[in-house]
Amino acid sequence: MEKKLIEVIAWGGAMILIVAPFFQDIRLTSFHMIFGLSLLTIQAVDQELWNLVVLNICGIIGWSLKFKKENEIEKARIG
Q1: Which residue, among 16, 35, 32, 30, has the nearest Cα to 64 in the 3D structure?
Q2: Separation CA 36–CA 16 (nearest Å)
Q3: What is the pLDDT of residues 49-65, one digit of tens each?
């Protein structure tokens, strides 16, 4: 990928991570955290920063599990 595009994607990911904790709904927060970390992972792979790639993947897995759990709780509440 072009370096400038990767930089824009990474800044977008950083901005998403900055605003994500301020959402009231934990599912919305989880979604934004997953998306933001995914965008930052693109830059980490391009720069070959493997420790950050692993860290981001662990974060994505953790937030995905939280997102799944919250969806199950919501389904149980509704149904």
Answers
A1: 30
A2: 5
A3: 999 999 999 999 999 99
DSSP H stretches of helix in the chain? 3-19, 26-46, 50-78
Specify the 3-state DSSP secondary structure of 22.
helix
Residue with tokens 């799944």: 68
Q: Which residues contact 12 (CB under 8 A, 6 or more apart)?
A: 39
3-state secondary structure (DSSP) of residue 48: coil
Mean pLDDT for the stretch of residues 21-35: 96
Average pLDDT over residues 1-11: 94
- Contact indicator for 36, 59 with CB cutoff of 8 Å: no
Q: Are residues 63 and 23 in contact, defined by beta-carbon separation less than 8 angstroms?
A: no
